[in-house]
Amino acid sequence: MAQVNQGVRETVYPQAAQTFYRTLSQIAISAVTPIAAVLVALAFGAALLWLNGFNGSDIVTVMIFGSFQDMRSVGEILLKATPLILIGAGLCVAFRCSIWNIGAEGQLYAGAIAATLVGTSFTGLSVWVHVPLVMLAGALAGAAWAGIAGYLKVRFQASEIVTTIMLNYIALILTSYLVTGPMRDASAAYPQSARLIREAWTPRIVSDMRLHIGILVAIVLAVALYIFLQRSSRGFALRVVGLNPHAARYAGMQVARNVMLAMCISGAMAGLAGAFEVAGVTHRLYQNISPGYGFEGIAVALLAGNNPLAAIVSGGLFATLRSGSEVLQITSQVPQVLVLVIQGIVILSVVAFAKLRDILRIVA
Amino acid sequence: MDDMMFLTFLATLAGAAWRLATPLIFASIGEVFSERAGVLNIGLEGTMLVGAFCGFAAAFATGSVPLGLLAGIAGGMLFGLLFAFFTITIKADQIVVGAALNLLGMGLTAFLFRTYYVSTGKGIEIAQPVHIPFLSDIPFLGEAFFRQNLIVYSTVLVAILASLVLFRTSFGLTLRAVGEHPKAVDVAGRNVAAYRYGAVMVGTGLAGLGGAFLTLGHSNQFVEGITSGRGFIVLAVVVFARWSPIGAFFVSLLFGLFYALQLMLQAQASIIVPYQVLQALPYIMTIITLVVLRGKGAAPSKLGQPYEMR
């Protein structure tokens, strides 16, 4: 049956259109699973609200529609999508290499600390120098923080799952130490660093909205990582190491180097996300600059099927859910942590549907 | 006089170490069972949170600590069932499912706590210390080891019992075989999946108990994220303990000591290092532990791998 269809299509469509058609249908097929997963998670969220005396339909009317009221709220969604796309796309690279980097949260804080250090010193630099310098500092610090776990893995076989999580806590404690101690702005009532020099602030896209150019950087980098993974030989080696390290070793690929690379790329992306949070949003470092973007990034990558290009969409989706949960808290007093439950269910549903698809494929 | 003060300090430290080790002891012994059967559960943090919350909620409603502990175990096992279904029946990646359960545990407990309890601001009655006659009167040692609550004492029993079950019963033998060579177990006509389900349930039940201790035997309140990474530290404890229940008991005690040191030195005004250094101590020690014990000599060979029946 499939053979016949293929034959018909070949006669009707010319070569280029056929490739286009095939790509489009592939995208459609691979989008079914994540869409279904999100729907299941929303249904679960609605049930949870209903069971606990809230209005279940709020999850659609308030949470989804409420976050698209005007341009400003769309801008806020994109602002939240920025760290999620950066972290999610970076984690796609790590997960493809079978590196379980659970430490993006800590790498984000490492990046934020470095960005603050660079952004509060060096007065008199031009915007064109200072802004990239802050971004570079964030990315390098994130890569270095992740690199610790990478080194411990390749050198001592220490499980990166445990070390990256421990490094999360250490980065958070380090931030707390810095903003209450050496980096504290003595004139402020709360523990926080001094304000970043204006030339170091990430430029805004529209002057009266908080949205900054970080979203564009995130999208460009996600596309770049997609090309890197799919089209470069280094990206190919990285994926082979992820699929079968033994085979990779026999093929002459250096497993350790690829592991380090995957770790540092994902760390750099998380560090950059931290730099943007400080330089683009808060303009100061304090203890809770991230509401858990590092952990949410894991869900972003998994929903995207570890494809950095798809991470742009899934990052936007999770940002919408996060914005919506804030609206829901304000209008209906629903605790905002609901968003964590939805994230968890999304991951479980992705896993379940992927399995279901395998079974259906075997049956068909 | 200074010597006396130091001895008192040591006695208090040892007592606090055992108390703070208790949640780790339960959860790590549970994880030993799980990992011996080949299942790596990184969802323990979420599972412990669920245990802590269920324990708190049940004790809040009934005023009974034993019922709270049972609710903690039940909550943990319910979460374990979810984990087992996804990793054993559906054969999904254990790390992915574990990460999802951590989010779910954190989200659900915080959601329910904020909805029902946060405004009450009330605590619960927690387990009281039981002074063991005569022994508790021994100077210093009595203070350290014989004035704990019953949950803390029970850790010794659980460790011995777990060790006997794992190494001296045919159930334990089969369970270990499931983690080393599931095919052999399958060929021998035993159900690999059933043993893995059992191991995960034991593991998550104990993790739930460990979580419940936090609200029923330590603090009298539930706090969002009260486990603060203990579910992850447990994973390192199990490696350090070389997958043995007795080992898990002593390694947990060591980590309890780090927690206790942190608390007691923070109270010390004369201390020169910033308190954050002490706060980071358990986490830094976890990393050092993994580095010092390089290699996975004793790890079950099929750890983390689903078993495909042929």
Short précis:
The complex is a heterodimer of chains A (364) and B (310). Chain A has 364 residues and is mainly α. Chain A has helices spanning 2-12, 15-51, 58-64, 71-96, 104-120, 127-156, 160-180, 214-231, 233-243, 245-250, 255-282, 293-303, 308-332, 338-363.
Protein model, in words:
- The complex is a heterodimer of chains A (364) and B (310).
- With 364 residues, chain A is mainly α.
- Chain A has one domain (38-363): ABC transporter involved in vitamin B12 uptake, BtuC (Orthogonal Bundle), CATH 1.10.3470.
- Chain A contains 14 helices and no strands.
- Chain B is an all-alpha fold and 310 residues long.
- Chain B has one domain (2-119, 133-292): ABC transporter involved in vitamin B12 uptake, BtuC (Orthogonal Bundle).
- Chain B is built from 13 helices and no strands.
- Chain B has helices spanning 2-36, 44-62, 65-89, 94-117, 141-145, 150-168, 170-180, 182-187, 192-218, 230-240, 245-267, 275-279, 281-292.
- The radius of gyration of chain B is 20 Å and the shape is globular.
- Chain B starts with a helix and ends in an 18-residue tail after the last helix.
- The A-B interface holds A 48, 52-53, 100, 102, 152, 156-159, 161-163, 165-167, 169-170, 173-174, 176-177, 181, 295, 298-299, 302, 335, 337-345, 347-348, 351-352, 354-355 and B 42, 82, 86, 90-93, 95-97, 99-108, 110-112, 114-115, 224, 228-229, 232-233, 235-236, 239, 274, 276-277, 279-280, 283-284, 286-287, 290-291, 294-296.
Essential attributes:
heterodimer, A: 364 residues, mainly alpha, ABC transporter involved in vitamin B12 uptake, BtuC, disordered N terminus, B: 310 residues, 13 helices, 72% helix, globular
Named at the architecture level, the CATH assignment of chain A is Orthogonal Bundle
* Total tally of structural domains of chain B: 1
Spatial separation of the terminal alpha carbons of chain B: 72 Å
**CATH overall fold name of chain B:** ABC transporter involved in vitamin B12 uptake, BtuC
Which class of chain A in CATH terms? Mainly Alpha
Structural class of chain B: mainly alpha
DSSP, total strands of chain A: 0
Q: Tell me which CATH architecture of chain B applies here.
A: Orthogonal Bundle
Oligomer: heterodimer
| Helix-strand pattern of chain B | HHHHHHHHHHHHH
Radius of gyration of chain A: 22 Å
Order of SSEs of chain A, N→C?
A: HHHHHHHHHHHHHH
Helical content of chain A (DSSP H or I, runs of 4+) = over 70%
Strand residue content of chain A:
under 5%
Give the strand tally of chain B: 0
CATH topology of chain A: ABC transporter involved in vitamin B12 uptake, BtuC
Q: What is the 3D form of chain B? A: globular
Helices of chain B, by number, come to 13
Secondary-structure-derived class of chain A: mainly alpha
